[in-house]
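Supplementary notes for students who missed Thursday's class. We covered one full example, reproduced here. Read the sequence, then the structure, then the short commentary at the end.
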Amino acid sequence: MSASRRSGITDELGPEEPEPAREGGDGSDLLAALLDGMDAALCAFDADGVVTHWNREAERILGWTAAEAVGRAGFAGWAVRSADAEEVEARLMSAMHAPGRQVNEFALLTKDGGRVLVRTQSAAVHGPDGKPAGVYCAFSEVHAQIDLERSIALSEALLEDASWGVVLVDADLRPAVVNAHAARALGAGRTAVLGRPLGELLAQGAEELESALTHVLAEGAPPAPAELWVSVRTPEGERRRCWRSGFVRLASPLAEEPVPLGVGWMFQDVTEARQGEQEASLLRFRAQQLHRAARAAAECEDPAEAVTVHLDFALAGFADHALIDRVAEGTADGTARVRLVRIAATPSGSPGPSRLAGQAGLPVRYGDGHPAVQCVERCGSVRASAGAAGAEAARTWALSRQWPADTVHALCAVLRSRGRTLGAVTFLRGAGRNPFERADAMYAEDVATHIATALDLANLAPDDH
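Structure (token representation):
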């Protein structure tokens, strides 16, 4: 540009002349950089089969430099055995007149005389007039290609057909990809869970899961799988599930330094197995408690003391409080209203051993329909619960039944010995425990059998009737 142009003065030279092209600015440097930067080996042939391009990856695989390769007519005598050259060149050049890409496998020669099996993708190169002007060929070692295909196939299989849940979680701890199994486990569609916080997908356990994911992002994969208990929202309500989970940190393979893309989370539902193990462990513990209680009671000189021994052993891990009521004399003949007398109970304030009571023989103020009364009348176990009542309503419910104020769940088991109904044993749980279930009732009935035997032996029951 002239000085007058730079100073803003106009003249009559007409449109501004283009500046001369800079050295190397014709795009050849850019093309060379693109070719050399490719992860795949690439070569190109003109219409006569002469090599026109050869990048660094091709040099790495075969050992021939671009200066040695460009300008050669085909591969014969240097990159392919002479016996195979005609067939190889024919298959490569056939791509010039074929639609799309062609895939072939060839054995090429390295500069040092070795052989390398490569997989090629060839396609036609068209000139400005649209006619075929040559062929380009991208190739890579077969084992590297197979490794890549295996990785892609594995990823697709995990995200489609895997029999366990697979979730790819992004760096913000939100699901980015979910397979069908995981979507079913989360109780939603595959697209419905994407991008949503885990707290919206799980009723309980989201904090523990997010903590595990954060740890993996910061420290890497843990050395062993972890078992997480969660509650999943479903149309039928919340479901408690145990997921055996494995985690791997995902990093970009294209970055010079590892850049976390998120976490791969794989899990399998092991709820039934864990519940089975817990039930078996609970059964073993309860059987051991019954055995220990029987041996301890056998050492008691006073059968009444044996009653409290059985009660104390039964409480461990089973209930918070317990009490025993015997049938008052003259009230279990089927004609009079059942009256019960308290003979033993655990402290309601602080933990401690059971204490004998009821020496005065005064009946407990149980109303009609009380669970303990129903238990005696039916000669069977009775379960009761305050349900979803508030704290104050639950307190009123417990006090009206002559139970400690913190009681929320109750289980009454009948005491029978020698064909007679002697009374009832009642186990009580607070708000921190689950309601009594059928398995709990069976255990309470076993305990009641031992207590009834000791009670009958202690002559604390009423006379035969």
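Commentary. The mean pLDDT is 83. The chain is about 35% helix and 25% strand. If anything here is unclear, bring it to office hours.
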